[in-house]
Amino acid sequence: MPKSWRLTLQAESSLLDIAHWTIETFGPRQARAYEEDLIARCSGIASGTVISQSCRALIDPDLAEDLRFSRSGQHFIVFVEDDTSIVIIDFLHVRSDLPEKLTRLEKPETKGGH
Fold first, then answer.
1. What pairing do the DSSP bridges indicate for beta strands 110-113 and 53-54?
2. How confident is the model over 65-112, as pLDDT tens digits?
3. Are the CB atoms for 91 and 56 separated by under 8 Å?
4. What is the predicted pLDDT for the residue at 111?
5. Which CATH number does the domain housing residue 94 bear?
6. pLDDT at 114
7. Terminal Cα-to-Cα distance of the chain (whole angstroms)
8. Using the 8-state DSSP alphabet, how is residue 64 labeled?
9. Cβ–Cβ < 8 Å for 105, 67
């Protein structure tokens, strides 16, 4: 059974920034398609059908939480998981300084689940 999932306020803000940039660069049709891909990947994470990796294992064993990530297009979806839900912490571009950004991520207030 799929877990519920939700976006943090930071993840929601990043998703909007991605959409705005994509609209300006490639147009609204491509922005909708890319946003749908990101949301579908989040649903796949929640259903257990998407492969993810531990940020601790690959980037920094001293991270505060056992953050996980999965790649979708040009973004990493960073999340934490418990027994019943997935919290999408942020969407980070693949060209980001991931170790630096991951050490600064916090688990802020979240929006409603999906």
1. unpaired
2. 678 999 999 999 999 998 899 999 999 998 888 777 777 765 444 444
3. no
4. 47
5. 3.30.2310.20
6. 53
7. 14
8. S
9. yes
Task: Give the bridge partners for 59, in sequence order.
Answer: none
- Domain interval for residue 58: 4-113
Q: Tally the domains of the chain.
A: 1
Structure tokens of 91?
Answer: 């969407």
Give the C-alpha distances (Å, rounded to integers) separating 23 from 31, 53, 67, 113: 5, 30, 30, 26
Instruction: Report how far residue 81's alpha carbon sits from residue 100's, in angstroms, rounded to the nearest whole number.
Output: 21
> pLDDT tens digits, residue range 40-64?
999 999 999 999 988 877 777 777 6
HEC-encoded secondary structure of 27-52: CHHHHHHHHHHHHHHHHHHHHCCCCC
